[in-house]
Each structure stands twice: as C-alpha cells, then as structure tokens.
Design goal:
alpha/beta; Aspartate Aminotransferase, domain 1; Aspartate Aminotransferase, domain 2; 7-stranded mixed sheet; 15 helices; about 40% helix; about 15% strand; globular; kynurenine-oxoglutarate transaminase activity; aminotransferase; pyridoxal phosphate; PyrdxlP-dep_Trfase_small
Length: about 375
C-alpha cells in the first residue's frame, strides 16, 4: 500500500482553471503564460544551436557561456558578482530551482516562513522534506509584510524564510526597507533566505527591483531563483536558474545533479547569445506596463475595484461589489457562464482566507485582453 507524502494536495488551481477554460471555450486569463510568440530571433538561435551539434548533455551546472552572461547581468543590474563556475546553476524552470533549494537545506522538523498568498509550489516542497510551514498572511489590498509579526513567528526551529518580489498573485513589490528588515532578521537569527525573483524584469511606474543580490549581508545567505520563461515569453521551455554563495550552491548542486543533472543544451546556448544584448530584458517593464494599462483602461467602466499591479504580469480584481460568492465559486461561474477564466486567490492564502479577489493574467495580446475585459464589464 502507498502512504501519500502529500495527502491533502490536489491538482493545482492553474491546471483546474485552464482545463475548465478549455471545456467551456473560455477566454483564458487564468494561467500565467503569454498567448504571443517568443522573439523569432531567439527561436532561430535555438535552431542554430541544434544544427551546430549542441544536442547532448550540457555541463551539470549549466552551459559555460550562459553562466557567464548571468553573472554579467547581476553585475550590471545589482553590482553583485556571482562566480560563473561555483555560484550559478541552470535549472529546469524556477519551480525546480525552488524545490532544489528547499530540498538542499530544510530538514525534518525545521520551520520555513512563507508569506501568503504564496505561489503553490512552496508548501508542498517544504512538506516533502518533513519541514513545517509557518505562514504570515499578507493583508489586502496593500499586501505589505508586517515585519514585527514575522519576528514573532521566528523560533529556534526556523531554518528559512521564502520571499517573492514582485509578488504573485498580488503584484506587490518589496521595498528597500522591506529587504533591510529581512536582512536584519536573517542575520540575527542565522536564517537562510529563498528569494523567488522570477518577475524581476516586470516592474512598473518607475519602481526598482530590490533584489536580494543588492544587500551584501542578505545575499550571503540567500538562494535567488529566476525564470527565462517568464522573461522571454517561452514558459514551455522550462529553463530557469539559481544564484547563491558558494557554500549554499554546493549543497544545491548535490541535489540538482540527481534530480535533473542538466538542462536543455541548445536552449542554453541560444539564451547565452541572446543575453549579450541587455535590451532583451531591460525593455520588459515598459512592454508589460502598456499591457497592464490597456487592460485596466478597458475595465474602467466595470464594477471591479482595481489597485494597479506594481509588478508581475498579473492583476487582482476585487469583485465584492458584484457578488457575495466565495472567490472559488465566483471564478468557476465566470468560466462556465460567462466564458472567461481567472484564478481565485483564496487558494494561496492561509486558511483559504477570501478577500473576494480574482487574479487575471495580462500577458496576452490586445485582442484577448479586449475580449476578456468586454465580458468582465457585463458583470
């Protein structure tokens, strides 16, 4: 007989809502993937890499050229030097990087603090390692962390704090002060930090990404995870990476080599060439801010309460003036009755706290956004 290690875990809400969207022919604003193509030049680079013979295993840590380009990026943006040969690893997407970092350092009975609403891969990964999840609920509509509350949650068993900025699903950004307070707590209590920064290049209204790499004492105890799929519109390629100081990366790679070993080689070669031009990621905030503004403008006559997203390609919509239903029921009804799919946010909260909000993805072409908004305005 099998005893499940994750007995309460069901199919992810992203898969559920996308399947529901397919069944009902709905406009899919739920799962976070673009409905437009990646740069044809990047696709061509992958083809060239295949034709040039990069079709066998890449080095375990990653293609040397790509590791060097990532190192250059951190130096350019955050004035932080990560050694390509010992402090960077290419992963099969950011989710694998997150799982590997947790697996590498969290032991049975140790506690991990997460901020809820939280991306749904954090908690299962902690549970699989026998760790205990300690949630800190962020309050709508600001979703700003209460560091006094965080401090009270820290015990002698606390091993790690997981942070995510820009934050999915709220679009909130950690400020410089937030990161300094995180740094102080991590140093004082000798904690490891996992900083999920997959949306680092999607930040709006002139704000600056406060990467953990910017803070010297914090970066020395932090795994930073990132995603090429989110950055370059190709989530199906499943390529990401992790950067961390050498001592942490050594433990990370001990796990990585046995659950993945190495990642798609021709894609790595293509990304190494593509990243030589920083404009390919530096222009992303402007690109997505136009989409955010277009979508919000399309909803200007709707009954939703909207606080514009500060980052990511997600927007929360408060439907409390429209319905008293719980958000899961509301999202299901939207899909089945109105043919537009969204994500209910209570599934990411501690105790499924319901703020009457749904999450929509605006990483779509204008036709899709206009069609989705037209439906939402009828509510």
């Amino acid at each position: 007989m099998i005893t499940s290690k994750l007995p309460q875990t069901e199919t992810s809400i992203f898969s559920v809502m996308s399947q529901l969207a397919k069944e009902h022919g709905a406009v899919n604003l739920s799962q976070g993937f673009p409905d437009f193509e990646s740069d044809p030049y990047l696709i061509e680079l992958v083809s060239h890499a295949m034709k040039d013979g990069y079709n066998q295993y890449a080095p375990m840590a990653g293609d040397t050229d790509l590791l060097k380009e990532i190192s250059k990026k951190y130096q350019l943006l955050y004035k932080k030097a990560y050694a390509p040969n010992s402090e960077i690893t290419i992963t099969a997407g950011a989710t694998q990087a997150i799982f590997t970092a947790i697996t590498a350092v969290v032991n049975k009975g140790e506690e991990v603090i997460i901020f809820t609403p939280a991306y749904d891969c954090y908690a299962p990964s902690i549970k699989l390692m026998g760790g205990n999840i300690v949630p800190v609920q962020l309050q709508a509509p600001a979703y700003k962390p209460d560091w006094n509350l965080v401090a009270k949650k820290i015990t002698e068993r606390t091993k790690m704090i997981i942070v995510n900025s820009p934050h999915n699903p709220s679009g909130m950004l950690f400020s410089e002060d937030d990161m300094l307070q995180l740094e102080a707590l991590a140093v004082r209590h000798d904690l490891i930090v996992l900083s999920d920064e997959v949306y680092e290049h999607i930040i709006f209204d002139g704000n600056i990404h406060q990467s953990a790499a910017r803070f010297p004492k914090l970066s020395q105890r932090t795994f930073i995870t990132a995603s090429f799929g989110k950055t370059f519109h190709n989530t199906g390629w499943k390529v990401g990476y992790c950067v961390a100081p050498q001592a942490l990366m050594r433990e990370f790679q001990k796990v990585h080599q046995f659950n993945v070993f190495s990642v798609n080689h021709p894609v790595q070669k293509a990304l190494a060439t593509y990243m030589k031009d920083p404009d390919h990621y530096l222009g992303l905030s402007s690109f997505y801010q136009k989409k955010r503004d277009f979508f919000i403008n399309e909803l200007k006559d709707a009954r939703f309460k909207i606080v514009p997203s500060h980052g990511t390609y997600f927007q929360l919509l408060d439907f409390s003036k429209i319905s008293t239903e719980n958000d899961v029921a509301f999202a299901e009804r939207l899909t089945k009755q109105y043919q537009v799919a969204t994500i209910p946010t209570s599934v990411f909260n501690a105790n499924n706290e319901d703020y009457k909000q749904i999450r929509v993805c605006f990483a779509k072409n204008e036709t899709t956004l206009k069609k989705g908004a037209a439906i939402l305005k009828t509510l």
